[in-house]
Amino acid sequence: MEAESIPSLSPLIQAADQWGELLLLLPLLVALEAVLSADNAIVLAAISRQLRDPQLQGRALNLGLGLALAFRLALIAVARWVLDFWPLQLLASLYLLWLCVSNLWPAAASNDAAGEEHAPEPGTPHHDRGLLTVVGTLALTDLAFSLDSVAAAVAVSDNLLLVMAGGVIGVVALRLTSALFIRWLGVYRHLETAGYLAVGLVGVRLLLRLVMPSLVPPEWVLLAVVALLFLWGFSRRYPLPDPSEITP
């Protein structure tokens, strides 16, 4: 979800035709992108955590989001075509729904838990292949998230510089918030589930826009539901280890 895609911001965005107004608008875009990219950031953080090594997690985020930025700028350049090319939007919605279901399905969760017990040590060839897989998944996931919002942003504003600035800000905000969520996912029990449920909502909304546009909920409804999901996600911490059970 991106700041430029919110209809209530359209008059403000359209008014930013001069450099002075653009510079005044950028801080607002930074704050909005940091808040509105939370659902994307938590999923990217969950994907990065599969590597377990903090250094590799950071490297994966840098490479994956660098690739995502290139995808976003290319997408902005062809956004007029994307608006009319429904198969690409259908693929994005199905990918997000698959990402949600595959990570929340009980069988997938049990397989992930079993895989952690037999995960290879960092630095092995298998682990390196995992890094490349995670980088590609990060870039593809951000592309699916940004497809609808970039097309909407270009439809709202003809200022290509502003739309590209929003895309760059969005990726920078994702990098910062994803690093935070990597730590928070190890603290809050329901946070990862809340993030994947938010992904499912975005996928459903994309699909409805293609097949039944009249049923697409307003943007504020989606924002409210995502906010409630995140309140639930932060509602319960993992229990702290018993100090008496920690061996010196």
Sequence-ordered SSE layout with sheet pairings:
Elements: H1 10-14, H2 19-36, H3 38-48, H4 54-77, H5 79-84, H6 86-104, H7 106-117, H8 125-156, H9 160-185, H10 191-211, H11 219-233
Helix pairs in contact: 2-9, 3-8, 3-9, 3-10, 4-8, 4-9, 6-8, 6-10, 10-11
Helix share bin? over 70%
Number of strands: 0
Mean pLDDT figure? 76
Cα(first) to Cα(last) distance is: 47 Å
Structural class: mainly alpha
Largest sheet: none
- Sheet-strand content, in percent, reads under 5%
Secondary-structure element series: HHHHHHHHHHH
Radius of gyration: 19 Å
**Would you identify the regions where 5 or more consecutive residues have pLDDT less than 50?**
107-129
Number of helices: 11
Shape: globular
Please characterize this protein's 3D structure:
This protein has 248 residues and is mainly alpha-helical. Helix content is 76%, strand content 0%. The chain is built from 11 helices and no strands. Helix 2 (19-36) runs parallel beside helix 9 (160-185) and helix 6 crosses helix 8 (125-156). It is globular.
